[in-house]
UniProtKB/TrEMBL annotation:
Binding site for Zn(2+) 2: C432, C435, C450, C453
Source organism: Micromonospora pattaloongensis
Xref: Gene3D superfamilies: P-loop containing nucleotide triphosphate hydrolases, PriA, 3(prime) DNA-binding domain
Region named Disordered: 122-169
Cofactor(s) annotated in UniProt: Zn(2+)
Name of the molecule in the record: Probable replication restart protein PriA
Quaternary context: Component of the replication restart primosome.
InterPro entries: P-loop_NTPase (IPR027417), PriA (IPR005259), PriA_3primeBD (IPR041222), PriA_3primeBD_sf (IPR042115)
Taxonomic lineage: Bacteria, Bacillati, Actinomycetota, Actinomycetes, Micromonosporales
Function text: Initiates the restart of stalled replication forks, which reloads the replicative helicase on sites other than the origin of replication. Recognizes and binds to abandoned replication forks and remodels them to uncover a helicase loading site. Promotes assembly of the primosome at these replication forks.
Gene name per UniProt: priA
Molecular function terms, GO-annotated: 3'-5' DNA helicase activity; ATP binding; DNA binding; zinc ion binding
Length: 690
């Protein structure tokens, strides 16, 4: 009887190279490279950066080939690579090193980070790019909408490296025009063009064409022979940045990378960057790991937006990934926005970065007239201003703007019609009789329905007083649009939110009701911007409530016309509150300094480092028992979390951050090695601490 031996059981007849592979297994105790022999038939194509399939623990799993060496330190018998998924090197050494640093920073696994960094393979897109099929005469011409991936061999090396011809000083003189309102802006561009690595926090002026400014920074970097990565929060911002980069750099000089593109287009854009065909990559947080040759600049717009936080393990933030990447690659850094986060302020106060701001005279010239409705003079004129949803000052500002044939923007923090209702008689919040979820009204004629389970509660009766009438507890964007339509008859009223986002508004009288982040840009700017229901932002049980409120207000107010051109902003809030004061003076740096000082005093991020541990009480206690926490670690909690789980916070000084992440990762490895049944979610510096 003949026994056939598996290839993984054979001993090599000659010395074969060894591949170090990161296996795609999400277990903390397996977070290290494993050695495999490279069979002769794969020796040419199985190079570092390629995807492979390997036999691991009796199963065939995916992996990334990190390196090839002559021998292994493993004393036992090595298995062979089972097969090569593709000869395309999708993982560059720079990104592999960055992924390891990010995994260590967040106490996670390298495989989890690589899953975020490298998009899933799309074989048809890859094959079409490598060996284009013969054109089909009957097929439509898609070249205009999908130009495909240039052949690297056909790309001019100087162009691919990002070194344009012509006089650099002449180019800089053109680019400087957009930065002339910032005293240190021109110096930042010149440093980029001369190959240096400046680090800056930029506070953009109201009405600033920020996509054009970022495109000019990328162009200066390209002029210095290096590449750039620019990250924005959402697809709407990416669309504007994409158009600006095309206008400044020219066609086919950058790619836009976003998870919303779909598998084929996203992978095609990724390959374009990976093959060095373009020097600039722009995108949403999916682009923070984008491969760019000779990286010279990383930039992020509006780093306080929670969309920059990755919701998948190990939960990295795009800002921190880009800062780490800049440090590793000795690249320039630009943290930009109308507002300033506590993390950005910390970069300035520690001297790691310099600020780019306009002088006060320029700021006064560009800022709209901003007024609150809750200060004493306004209350003396309108006693109802403290309780009215649309006080007379806001109504008058909107009417004046509409009479001047300019659009009006109304920002409301909630979408929907009436997203929360309560009993008319006793004011008790209305809850679903089946699941206790909040009841809401989707329109003026619809019955109340549960926000959680979707059940209709047409016969709702208050369990406390028996009342059957409901009142609005929170007013949404659609109800606000309905009310404004009655207040300004004959004026078109449009809404912009998560379900339907307007990208632009033509000039002329119109009212746009938008939720934060969905405000469209108006041609020529808005004549008036009204900030309603500010209490919903300011009263949130969140460490960043004030910072987030100011970020949303400044982003909306920046769309107004300058005060000299009639632009007005009305915030329905008390003018004595610190975020409102920062808005009135348009001074996000002052507020960020104040917030950072308070967080230092209280020991909250970014002044300290915190880890959030969420799981069942037994699992959290088990992980903490296995963790060798650094000296000075402070435990806060536990507090209840969702689904009968609890949450524990671990706080350490910033100097102990690496030791904390390492201790938690090692404790997680102990638990996975023991095959613990209940997982614990580990998050370092989460945005939501409460």
């Amino acid at each position: 009887m003949t026994t056939t031996r598996k290839r993984s059981d054979r001993q090599p007849a000659q010395r074969l190279p060894v591949a170090r592979v990161c296996v795609d297994v999400p277990l903390a105790h397996l977070d290290r490279p494993f050695d495999y022999l490279v069979p002769a038939e794969l020796a040419d194509d199985a190079q570092p950066g390629t995807r492979v399939r390997v036999r691991f623990a009796g199963q065939l799993v995916d992996g990334w080939l990190l390196d090839r060496v002559e021998s292994s330190e493993h004393g036992g018998r090595l298995a062979y690579l089972e097969r090569l998924v593709s000869p395309e090197p999708v993982l560059s050494p720079e990104i592999a090193r960055l992924a390891r640093a990010v995994a260590d920073r967040y106490g996670g696994n390298l495989a989890d980070v690589l899953r975020l960094a490298v998009p899933p393979r799309h074989a048809r897109a890859e094959q079409a790019a490598t060996t284009p099929a013969a054109p089909d005469p009957a097929a439509p011409d898609l070249a205009a909408s999908d130009p495909g991936i240039p052949d690297p061999a056909a790309v001019d090396p100087d162009v691919a490296a990002g070194g344009p011809g012509g006089d650099t000083e002449k180019l800089l003189a053109e680019l400087d025009q957009g930065w002339r309102d910032y005293p240190t802006g021109a110096g930042f561009l010149r440093a980029l063009a001369h190959g240096r690595a400046p680090r800056a926090v930029w506070s953009a002026l109201p009405g600033e064409d920020w996509p054009a400014r970022l495109a000019e920074a990328a162009a200066a970097t390209v002029a210095g022979g290096r590449g750039a990565v620019i990250v924005v929060a959402d697809a709407r911002d990416l669309e504007r940045l994409d158009a600006a980069l095309t206008a400044v750099l020219g066609p086919d000089r950058h790619v836009a990378l976003s998870a919303a593109l779909g598998p084929a287009k996203r992978y095609r854009a990724f390959l374009t960057a990976s093959r060095g065909a373009v020097p600039v990559v722009a995108g949403t947080r999916a682009a923070m790991f984008a491969p760019v040759g000779r990286l010279g600049l990383v930039a992020i717009w509006d780093d306080g937006d929670d969309l920059h936080a990755e919701p998948r393990a190990p939960y990295p933030h795009a800002r921190d990934v880009l800062l780490t990447r800049a440090q590793l690659a000795d690249a320039a850094t630009l943290v930009a926005g109308h507002t300033r986060s506590g993390e950005a302020q910390l970069l300035i106060e520690t001297g790691w970065a310099r600020e780019i701001v306009a002088d006060r005279e320029t700021l006064r010239r560009r800022t709209p007239r901003i007024a609150p409705t809750g200060d004493d003079p306004q209350l003396a004129r309108d006693p109802a201003a403290a309780t009215a949803r649309l006080p007379s000052l806001a109504w008058e500002a909107a009417r004046t703007a509409l009479k001047a044939d300019t659009p009006v923007l109304v920002q409301v923090p909630r979408r929907g019609y009436l997203p929360a209702v309560s009993c008319v008689d006793c004011r008790t919040p209305a809850r679903c009789p089946h699941c206790a979820g909040p009841l809401a009204l989707r329109s003026a004629s619809s019955p109340p329905a549960c926000q959680w389970c979707g059940r209709i509660a047409a016969a709702y009766a208050c369990p406390h007083c028996g009342g059957r009438r409901l009142r609005a507890a929170v007013v949404g964007a659609r109800r606000t649009a309905e009310e404004l339509g009655r207040a300004f008859p004959g004026v078109p009223v449009r809404t912009s939110g998560r379900d339907e986002v307007l990208t632009a508004v033509p000039g002329g009288a119109a009212v746009v009701v938008a939720t934060p982040g969905a405000e469209p840009v108006a041609d020529g700017g808005y004549g008036a911007v009204l900030l309603l229901d500010t209490w919903a932002l300011l009263t949130r049980a969140d460490l960043r409530a004030g910072e987030e409120a100011l970020r949303r207000w400044l982003s909306a107010a920046a769309l107004a016309r300058p005060g000299a051109a009639g632009g007005r902003v009305v915030v329905v809030a008390d003018g004595g509150l610190a975020p409102v004061q920062a808005l009135l003076r348009w001074d996000p740096g002052w507020f960020a300094t104040r917030e950072l000082a308070e967080r230092r005093e209280l020991g909250f991020p970014p002044a300290a480092r915190m880890a959030s541990l969420t799981g069942t009480p037994e699992a959290v206690a088990d992980l903490l028992a296995a963790a060798r926490l650094p000296d000075g670690a402070e435990l806060l909690g536990p507090v209840p979390a969702a689904d009968d789980q609890e949450r524990m916070l671990v706080r350490v000084a910033r100097s102990r951050a690496a030791a904390l992440a390492r201790a938690l990762h090692e404790a997680a490895a102990v638990r996975t090695a023991r095959k613990a049944a209940q997982p614990v979610r580990i998050q370092i510096d989460p945005l939501d601490l409460f």
